[in-house]
Amino acid sequence: MAEESFLTDDFLRQLINVGEVDILVGLPTHNNSKTVGAIVQTIQSGILRGFPRERAVIINVDGGSRDGTPELVTGVSIDDMRPTSNRFALRTMHSISTKYGTSPASGVAFRTILAAAELLRAKACVMLSPDSGNIEPDWLSKLLSPIYRNEFDLVTPTYRRHKFEGILITNLLYPMTRALYGLRIREAYSPEFGFSPRLGCQFLEHYVWNDGTDGAGVELRFTTAAITGKYRVCQSYLGEKVPIERRAADLVGALRQTVGALFSGLETDFPIWSIVDGSKPVPTTGPDHEVLMDPLRVNRKRLHEMFATGVAELESIFQSILSPETLAELQRIAGLQEEEFNYSAELWVRTVYEFAASYKNSAINRDHIIQALAPLFRGRVLTVLRENRNASEEAIEQSIEDLCLEFERLKPYLLQQWKTRE
Amino acid sequence: MREMIVSELSQALQDIARSFAHFLPRLIVMLVLALVGWIIAYVVRALLRSILRLIKFDKLSDNAGASQLLNKAALPPATEVVSRFVFWVAWLGFILLGISVLGILGLQEQIARFFLFLPRLFVAMFVLFFGLLAASFFSRAVLLAAVNANMPSGRVLSVAVRSVIIIFVLSIVFEELGLAEQTMLLAFGIAFGALMLGLSIAFGMGGRDLARRFLEKRIRRGKTEENEENEDELSPL
Question: What is the chain B residue with the closest CA to A316?
Fold first, then answer.
């Protein structure tokens, strides 16, 4: 009961009332009243279909919603589904909710769910996001069965994505985690994943929760913890990933949550990743990727402008982060016209590796380092858009694979930079 | 007459010998204090240098922009400058203590004033260093935010923020040191006012086009909203 200190008395009482469970579904929320009711029903339906004989609980961890989200979660009854489903739960299905603060913090939410899973002695757990617009009942089985029935410890999803969506994942997170940690996990950072209690307990105990970041990017650190701890990892194909709201992407926020988390883990994981050579595939149910080829309007001119302005304006910052050769090359391509622009894979990998090495040991504030990467990432996005404008699905996948191999080939460069900057 | 001269001379010599006999122990005490002070200051310098290296003070100094100033002035790195400064202040303190033991009238008051001034000097240095650090941090934050928001003239904004903070810090430093307080207050008021006026004119004159474009964009938004949203909706994750 080491986690009592941060779980509220009311939440502990609710957990005691639930007793032990087999399946635990974690649902962090913040002002999701529009969608959360339907999502809870989908979860209940998924449990009825895949785990009718198991004891299950849905745990909603809310970051200070003001729209009645927690009440909606606990208010959804299994009876609401009877008109559309002829399935019946053979055990009681609980829905409980707790608030952890007045603003969302993914780390606190995840920690609460891990502590609850430990207290309830859950046999398999799954995290779902209310921001996913198309959660299907079979996602529960796909993410839980490998843990509940095949003794895997972590199930990460794979999705069908538009060819230009998720470029941060395909051009940085996937290739870099693959090159560093040696496992080909497509979605190392995902709001949906399944995990075993032993991995959850280990992470709950050893992760540094009070690092001042509110646990931003904790999902990615969970994945790398599973790899470095030699837990059994697999992937499961979930289908198309559709965010509920299509809105202007907060690139800096996304970089903080993902690249910031990845870079911050490199220092502690150095003894492990520094000796990894090459990469291995992980067991995967279904395809490990699928690409949607619909046309999509993107403002290339704006991307080019923001890259060129960024390189010019942030020169003094880049001088502290990048090697003179890399900076000179970036300044050269910043001067190219949009039609001739090419941020090559090699230069991109060198840039990312130099940022990673600088993150460990730089005079500049770490958050500023992550922010400085944003304009350069836009340059890489522009190159990806240009190269794949008319490319086939196979050609797009091949370009991602080539980039991954480039990350693996240049790994000694990262090690060299790492030692140089000590 | 001769006897008188000899007597006066011997009296004078005795007085000198007596004075010297009184003065010699004080001189020895002063020399001992100077020597002990040198040893203590040397040890303090070595300790301070190690501590500053341990906490990577040179990097902090880089971050604050202080290293650039030191380089331009052909001075050694920040760690070395601070440790040498502390060494000299400590040693000088002991030497002055020794001089005060000599009992020379007039110097006592000056020495007491020096010791009273020391805490203010350290506070001023502390404020200056962390002020430079804050100026560097906030100017970089503004620059990054402006670049990532695709705002024009990010560097101008950043330099303006840096200048305002440095002017503010310098005014505090001079006030703390008690140097020309009235003049500094006046200079700060004039400099700050001039900067704000300059910025207002610069934004007014230089930002006319920007303001026009902004207003046009707002007015046309209804027509182009759909297209603009499409262009921005590429999700990185």
Answer: B140
Task: Indicate the pTM of the whole model.
Answer: 0.80
Total number of domains constituting chain A? 2
Total residues belonging to chain B: 237
CA dist B11 and B18 (Å) reads 10
**A127 and A26 in a common domain:** yes
- Is some CB atom of chain B closer than 8 A to the CB atom of A12? no
Q: φ and ψ at A27, to 5 degrees?
A: -135, 90
Q: How far is B228 from chain A (nearest CA, A)?
A: 9
Establish how many alpha carbons lie within 13 A of residue B228's alpha carbon, considering only the half-sphere containing its beta carbon. Answer: 8
Per-residue pLDDT of chain A (422 residues; tens, 9 = 90+): 444 468 889 999 999 999 899 999 999 999 888 888 889 999 999 998 889 889 999 999 998 888 888 888 887 765 555 555 566 666 678 889 999 887 888 888 999 999 999 999 999 999 998 887 788 899 999 999 999 999 999 999 999 888 888 899 999 999 999 999 999 999 999 889 999 999 999 999 888 887 766 677 899 999 999 999 999 999 999 988 776 555 556 889 889 989 999 999 999 999 999 999 999 999 998 887 788 777 777 888 889 999 999 999 999 899 989 999 999 999 999 999 988 999 999 999 999 999 999 998 777 888 999 999 999 999 999 999 988 888 888 899 999 999 999 999 999 999 999 988 76
Last residue of a domain, one of A292, A312, A334: A292
Pick among 1.10.287, 3.90.25, 3.40.30, 2.30.30: CATH of B119-220: 1.10.287
Q: Which residues of chain B make contact with A306, given a CB cutoff of 8 A?
A: 147, 150
Contacts of A258 in chain B (CB under 8 A): 237
Structural domain including A385 reads 300-420
Q: Tokens for A361?
A: 């040991």
Answer yes or no: do A307 and A412 share one domain: yes
The verdict on a CB contact (< 8 Å) between B62 and A363 is: yes
**Chain B contact present for A371, CB below 8 A:** yes
Residues A99 and A222 grouped into a single domain: yes
* Chain A: closest CA distance from residue B124 (Å): 23
Contact at CB, B140 and A165, closer than 8 angstroms: no
* Residues paired with A236 in a beta bridge: A157, A285
And the tokens for A191? 């709001």
Alpha helices by DSSP H, A8-75: 9-18, 33-50, 69-75
Of A248, A251, A313, the CB nearest to B155: A313
* Pair A129, A270 in one domain: yes
Shared domain check, A273 and A194: yes
Q: Are residues A272 and A374 in the same domain?
A: no
* Cβ neighbours, 10 Å, residue A170: 24
Q: Which of A292, A309, A328 lies at the terminal end of a domain, its last residue?
A: A292
Comparing CB atoms, the residue among A249, A309, A364 nearest residue B63 is A364
